[in-house]
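Could you help me review a protein record that somebody else here produced? This is what I was given.
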Amino acid sequence: MVGLLGQRDELLRLVQDAFPVTIHVRGNEISVRGDEVEADRVGRLFEEMVALLEAGHVLDRDGVGRSIAMLKADQRPTEVLTTEVLRGRKPVRPKTSGQKRYVDAVREHTITFGIGPAGTGKSYLAVALAVQALQAKEINRIILTRPAVEAGERLGFLPGDILAKVDPYLRPLYDALYDMLEPEVVGRLMERGTIEVAPLAFMRGRTLNDSFIILDEAQNTTPEQMKMFLTRLGFGSKIVVTGDVTQIDLPESRGGSGLLAVRTILDGIPDLAFVELDAHDVVRHKIVQDIVNAYERASD
């Protein structure tokens, strides 16, 4: 009951505040009084929470809050939160229904576009799916790439050769890898070329077979770069393209964002999916979700 209701009943109060019902706890028995529809929904919520505990999940305020949101949208939290993307150093699972749609789309399609604001797990889940595919021997290598677009800083003033100059742009992809695999394992795989992290310009002229290829920050590709990247696809490969169309850093002279144009161009092509994520799928600190919502309101 402590796992279900939380220390000092903090999780119980969270449920109580979310629904117009009265909840009574006596020993191991929970009773709910109020509107029949709402009481039934709360009963299903507790059933889902018990199932999550039995599956080994530890309930916290964020997890219960997301479960409440799913129940109100007539979704089952257990179907989302028990979906395993990667087992290992750090288990990775979707935390929202939107993230589960994204994971399912990547698994079911050859090319998937994940579009949404910061904190929705687009890049992180894509890297986790790539690592899982490598471990399952479904592919032979992982290729992670980003356009090296100057966002207020000039590449030319950064020290080192071209790889050193673009390294800061690729750092978020390294961070995701190190979060899921031991550092020595990442180093070994990169030395062998099993994992390759490179700027988008390095993709030109290549055909990538038996690979899981992720293009991150795709809103900063030009239409020509997007076409070049997508046509690198070889046999036995999968592509995931992630981006946030509200954070385009391309200068106007570059001809616009390839991510904005691609949906219209590729509409109707089979084995290709577009998944839209929004502020409800932000899983960083709650203030990040509030910031995303505030900017969306300001742009309306």
The CA atoms of residues 85 and 129 lie 6 Å apart. The chain is about 45% helix and 15% strand. The beta strands are 21-26, 29-34, 111-115, 141-146, 195-199, 211-215, 238-243, 272-276. The longest strand covers residues 21-26.
